[in-house]
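pinning this so it doesn't scroll away 📌
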Amino acid sequence: MNRPELKNDITELLDRDFTCRLVKDNDEDIIKALNCIYSHYKYDYLHQALYDLDYFKDVIRNGRFTAAVAENKHGQIAGFGANDAHPWFPGLMEMGGLIVHPVARGNGLGDMLDDFRIEEGRKKGIRGLFSTPIMPNPASQILLSRHGFIPTGMYFHAGGPESLGASGDGIHPMDCGFSVYIYDKETPHEIYAPGEIKDFLRDVMDEVGIRYEFNESTGFRADKTGIDFNHEVPSKLLETRILGIGPDFPEVIEKLPYHEDDTDIQALMMLISLNDPGCPELYQYLRSHGFIFAGSVPGGEEDLIVMEHLKHPIYKDFIKIQPDYEAIMSKVLKINGLE
């Protein structure tokens, strides 16, 4: 790993005249951006791969990352944020990883970086952005709402109790929310909605403002179920994405390492396309096997729902949220009988 030696290299601001720009494709500029991340997280940032210079260069060259910084007239980089074109969310980029250097807080850099990244996403011609603000930090939720993001669901137990790069207390799993900012509100979306969540989806999509039509399921489109998964060891989470629903989905799901007796995995998250006619049947199977419905991520090339299986309860008293996210969480909990 080509991991640089990082340091907290700003002890005071030399000026407060900041502008935002993209990270340059060279070691010096990338290290300045990483020093900004280090100023808050040290080496505990959740996206550990970014500390590798070669990886950082690769993801900005291939277009996966749109990495931005806030820089003042003296060349001090005191803010960082990125848009991530995650392959599991086609048509959307994740707007995340916002860091403001401790000495620069209170100067509006978070707002500047959000405005800049929203415009950069628009330039790319994608359908929209999504974000996953952490629930112990209402300030990040308020910032996203101020910039037009609509809460659409929850992401329970997205991180383990240590929660690298977040605010883990060593006891409670870390929870996040889902929210979206959609540019393309004209493309119609054909939805195969499970009956139990139809009203929830209608409310969310109406608030987001996208065009949609509910269709009746016509059976399976695929002969075999495709699945991709990622085991994040520090977070004790298994993330999965169903790539096509076939009649063999029970066997595919049962083979996931989450079900092994000696696994350290504490939560299983599954993304399922509402545009797949097999969605209602898979949904019913998961609900009958202890999964909860956690929300949706609509507006991309595929409209997704989030299903989760949790080995520990939802600690509602540990979740700190502002009203928009509180409303969506209340709806989610009600659907699952967890009020």
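📌 and the second one:
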Amino acid sequence: MDINLTKQFIDNIFSDSVIKTLQEYIKIKAKSPAFDQDWEQNGYLQHACEMVEKWCQSLKINGLSTEIISSKGRTPLLFIEVASNSNNTETTLIYGHIDKQPEGSGWDKNKSPFKPVIENNKLYGRGSADDGYAAFSALCAIKAIKEQNLPHNRFVILIESGEESGSPDLPYYIEKYQEKIGNVDLVVCLDSGCGDYKRLWITNSLRGTAVGNLEVKILTQGIHSGHSGIAASSFRVLRNILDRIEDSNTGEIKIQELLPIIPANIMKMIKKSVKIIGQEVSNCIPFAPGVKPVSSDPLDLMINHTWKPVLSYIGVDGMPSTAHAGSVLRPETLISLSLRLPPNIKAEKALELMKTKLENNPPYSAKISFIPLDYANGWVMPELNKKLFNAINESSRAFFNNDVCFVGEGGSIPFMNFLLSKFPKAQFIVTGVLGPNSNAHGPNEFLHLPYVKNLTCALSYIFAS
């Protein structure tokens, strides 16, 4: 591959069509079904698929075919195929999604979720980095190979529209069209993050998650708070039983079966990434003035973020607003718990352990129930073969002037384990553009344009290799 030609080609195609089309995509209110109950009638997801498909066809890639697959009640899937131009019968499967998180609040005055703005080489707007860029990056990388008449595998690109809702339809489509997908030897997921914008980052682990509602019920109705001291506070009981699973002083999870054993090769990668990122592990968090992270050691923070179980309290019912708070002993408190899990811990088992610990032997014989709501297993990257590792590292040196770096992500991509089970012999590359302050799911989400161009070049090099 001619490195300079690749850079020039990718820069030109982004300037000519990619950025303009991404701006149009940002304008589409293609919220994921979990955030738009009328998604099917509204048609935004279908519109986004059609817009991306039209752009793909405009590239006039030899061997390209596209199809929007949809079944009643299921989110549409854009199926893109590029035939091999060699005798290789194996397939590279590339994944991305076009559905979006809801608008959120806190956007800067000159920005909004569905109004694309380019500022300081960053494209702002909902879905720009998570994950609208994916189809464009993948096709441009393939087009760059074609421009230099280099041999390549067959490519299948799946762009789904339900990822932000937990990818409920993706297993169905992959099972139904497995024969059409073919013999996959490499899976590339373009829905992850990067530690900085100076090198290629590959995700080597993803945490799992276990979500449920914990309810403590003491009374059949609210009573005058003067009766306190006779009946226990439902909030105090809730606080007490939460101490069974979390140390409120340190945040450490007390369920021994959920504590991780980090593989030696992963720990080596963690230490290397911390040397590069340093204090950026916490500097990119929007702390309130004067607030400090839970540790001053970046290594501790990275381990906490990628491999330790951590409990978050994400919702509460049963508490009136402060403006409407009366002198009342409330009958019950309901709280939503989200436990992030080590990548190699089974989420279903975690929910079982939480339920047992929280419900057994309730104080004052209070009515306590823990209702599991959702779960997702984590994922650990299979070991890369030497040829692929070398191609990845060479691509990072060629287009970023730095070696590749591997890092874990604190979030989840639930279907990664499903893909691993479907294609157990495949190699995996999980990467993305969600770097410092890119703020996926939050206000001022942006796509770092120089980085995505370099990432696209790197992908082209890897595919050609």
